[in-house]
Design brief:
Low-confidence stretches: none
Radius of gyration: 18 Å
Order of helices and strands: HEEHHHEEHEEH
Helix content: 40-55%
Largest sheet: 2 strands, antiparallel
Mean pLDDT: 90
Distance between the termini: 58 Å
């Protein structure tokens, strides 16, 4: 059965932030891609995880738990979020191996339905190790999307220049024209 097209306005962010972006606002109403297993299948396919992990109700619940933990970490207090993120990370581990191609690391899960949630939590650790200050929430009014700022100067403010950035610039232009 083919999966539906991903309806989210921002995709392609690192896995942890992409999981956060399964909630977004459209016309003032919060949308949730993880409302059901069909949305889960869309998210897994969008992130190249479709064939690798269980896509049933258990995986959906685990991803919702991981999303809540990551939301607490990114938008709240990292100290208070640490036990929530750790609770997700308890369900997997990295297995180091030596292969014919050289050293390799592979994630392992006792329960495969934890795989996507664990991978997202692990990715968050990688992001905060690399550049925690580059994890951003869109500055667009009413936008709840997150992104990893890859701009040279680290000054990106919006999830998308075409959407939120354009609205902010148009609003400032309109305000200036009303003053003059």
């Amino acid at each position: 059965m083919p999966t539906s097209r991903d309806p989210r306005p921002l995709t392609g962010e690192p896995l942890a932030l992409d999981l956060l972006n399964t909630r977004w606002n459209r016309d003032g109403v919060t949308q949730d891609l993880l409302a059901d297993t069909e949305g889960l299948a869309v998210w897994l396919a969008s992130n190249g995880l479709a064939g690798d992990h269980a896509a049933g109700p258990e995986a959906l619940e685990h991803l919702r738990e991981a999303r809540a933990a990551l939301t607490a970490a990114v938008d709240g207090s990292p100290a208070e979020a640490a036990p929530l993120v750790d609770a997700v990370l308890e369900h997997g581990r990295i297995r180091a191996r030596l292969t014919a191609a050289g050293p390799a690391e592979e994630p392992e899960f006792a329960d495969p339905s934890w795989g996507p949630a664990w991978l997202a939590a692990r990715n968050y650790l990688e992001l905060i190790t690399r550049a925690p200050e580059r994890i951003r929430t869109c500055a667009g009014g009413g936008c709840i999307l997150h992104f990893f700022d890859t701009s040279r100067n680290g000054t990106r403010r919006w999830c998308s220049m075409a959407a939120c950035g354009n609205r902010a610039k148009a609003s400032r232009h309109y305000a200036r024209s009303k003053e003059g």
